[in-house]
Amino acid sequence: MKQCAAWSRAGATIIARPLRYPPDWPQSKAQQKGVDVALAIDFVAYAIEAKYDVGVIASTDTDLIPALEFVQRTAAQCRVEVAAWTSPRSRSRLSIPRSSIWCYWLDRTDYDSVADLTDYNI
Question: Would you say 42 and 49 are in contact if contact means Cβ atoms under 8 Å apart?
Fold first, then answer.
């Protein structure tokens, strides 16, 4: 957990979730499970508790659309926005039908400007 400790020292709030190990691990990789559900719950709960003015979901996972819709419909004090990656091959984003939601389009330059290149294995 060196990575979590380093990010905490830098001011990030870390909510670590355990990995799910498949029966044939290590042949198959361990996976994070429930991250999208946890994100949706926090997005909705923090809006209800008025903990943010603008909520930005940085994902293209369409399972998160109900959370966006709920916050937009019920939390008038919160603005809903999204962020998504754009590249020459791909350009998709979350949206709500009949609604205009701002999208922060991120590209490789944006990624490179925030990439953590630290090797936490040493």
Answer: no
Q: Answer yes or no: pTM beyond 0.85.
A: no
Confirm whether 89 is domain-assigned. yes
pLDDT in tens, 22-73: 899 899 998 888 889 999 999 999 999 999 999 999 999 999 999 999 999 9
Q: Which range marks the domain in which residue 57 is found?
A: 34-114
Half-sphere exposure of 97 (CA within 13 A, CB side): 1
Element of type H or E holding 41:
helix 35-48
**Per the structure, how many domains does the chain have?**
1
Task: Kindly give the pairing relationship between strand 31-32 and strand 19-20.
Answer: antiparallel
Q: Residue for token digits 């930005």?
A: 56
Backbone angles phi, psi at 85, to 5 degrees: -85, 145
